[in-house]
Write a structure and sequence with these properties.
This protein has 262 residues and is an alpha/beta fold. It has helices at 10-17, 32-41, 57-69, 83-91, 105-115, 139-149, 159-163, 165-170, 181-187, 195-210, 223-231, 242-261; strands at 22-27, 45-49, 73-77, 96-99, 151-156, 176-179, 215-219, 236-241. It contains twelve helices and eight strands. Strands 1-2-3-4-5-6-7-8 form an eight-stranded parallel barrel, surrounded by seven helices. Strand 3 (73-77), helix 4 and strand 4 (96-99) form a beta-alpha-beta unit.
Length: 262
C-alpha cells in the first residue's frame, strides 16, 4: 500500500513565511557526527557541497537521511552541470539542487530539464528510492513533490551570469538565485568589497525581485552579515560552513585557555 499524504519542503515553507533571511550553512566535512551537530543547531537548511569537498555519494546519502529526520532541508551543490548526478541526488532524498556557474539561459534550461519531471523536464521516475520513501509514497505524490517542492537554485558567479540573471530568474523551474560573490569578484579581477562587484550583486538582487524569485548569499556567521543580507532584501543566507565553524570554535577555545595561562 502506498501513502498519499503530502510532504512539504522545509526550505520552501520557510521561504514562503517571509520571516526574514532563512538560515543555512554549507556542509563540507564527510562525517555524520559533525553533521548531527549542525542539524541540532537549528538551521532551516543545509547545502551539502560536492563542488568544493571530498564528499562521496554514500556519505551524501547518509547526511541527507539524517537531515530529513532532523527536519532540516537538505540541498546539494553539484560540482558542475552533470544532470545525471543531480537526478541521483534528488532520488537520494535531497530537497533541492544548487548548480554553480549558471551563466546563460541555455544552461539554466538544461538544469530545469534534468531536475524536473515531464512535461517541464526529463527527470526519470525512481519512486522506489528514498525520495519516494522506498516505494511507500504514491506515484502521484512523488511526482508532485519533485515538481512543486524540490528547490532548484542557479548560482550566479560571473559578469555574464549577471547580464543574464533576469532571463534565468524568469525561467519556469528555477526557484531561486544564489550570489557567488567570491567567484564573481575573481571573474571581474576585483575584490569583493569593490563597488563594481557590489553593483553586480545589486543587479542579481534586482533580477530576482523583478521576477518574484528569492535571492540568497553566503557569508560569515556574524550578526552583521545577517543584517547586511536583510538590508539587501535577500530571502536566505548561508552562515559560513561546518569546517570553518568548527575551526573557529576550537581556535577560540585554545586562545582563551592560552590567555588564562599568562
Amino acid at each position: 500500500m502506498t501513502a498519499s499524504t503530502q510532504r512539504s519542503s522545509v526550505l520552501r515553507a520557510a521561504l514562503a513565511s517571509g520571516r526574514g533571511p532563512v538560515l543555512g550553512t554549507w556542509v563540507k566535512i564527510p562525517a555524520i557526527e559533525t553533521f548531527e551537530l549542525v542539524a541540532l543547531a537549528g538551521f532551516d537548511f543545509v547545502v551539502i557541497d560536492l563542488e568544493h569537498s571530498p564528499m562521496d555519494l554514500a556519505t551524501v546519502s547518509h547526511i541527507v537521511s539524517t537531515a530529513l529526520l532532523s527536519r532540516v532541508s537538505p540541498l546539494v551543490r553539484v560540482p558542475g552541470h552533470d544532470i545525471a548526478l543531480a537526478q541521483r541526488l534528488l532520488d537520494a532524498g535531497a530537497e533541492g539542487i544548487v548548480v554553480p556557474h549558471v551563466d546563460t539561459v541555455e544552461q539554466a534550461r538544461a538544469v530545469v530539464s534534468g531536475t524536473r519531471f515531464p512535461p517541464l523536464g526529463t527527470r526519470g521516475v525512481g519512486s522506489t528510492s528514498r525520495a519516494g520513501q522506498w516505494g511507500a509514497t504514491a506515484r502521484e505524490e512523488y511526482l508532485r513533490f519533485g515538481q512543486e517542492e524540490v528547490v532548484v537554485i542557479a548560482q550566479i558567479e560571473s559578469g555574464e551570469g549577471v547580464r543574464n540573471a533576469g532571463e534565468i530568474a524568469a525561467l519556469e523551474g528555477i526557484d531561486a538565485l544564489l550570489i557567488g560573490a567570491a567567484d564573481l569578484a575573481v571573474s571581474e579581477q576585483a575584490d569583493e568589497s569593490d563597488p563594481a562587484v557590489a553593483d553586480l550583486i545589486a543587479q542579481i538582487v534586482g533580477a530576482g525581485a523583478a521576477n518574484g524569485v528569492p535571492v540568497g548569499n553566503a557569508g560569515p556567521a556574524t550578526a552583521a552579515s545577517v543584517r547586511a543580507a536583510a538590508d539587501m532584501g535577500l530571502a536566505f543566507t548561508m552562515l559560513s560552513n561546518d569546517a570553518s565553524l568548527f575551526g573557529s570554535a576550537t581556535r577560540t577555545a585554545v586562545e582563551t585557555a592560552r590567555t588564562e595561562q599568562r
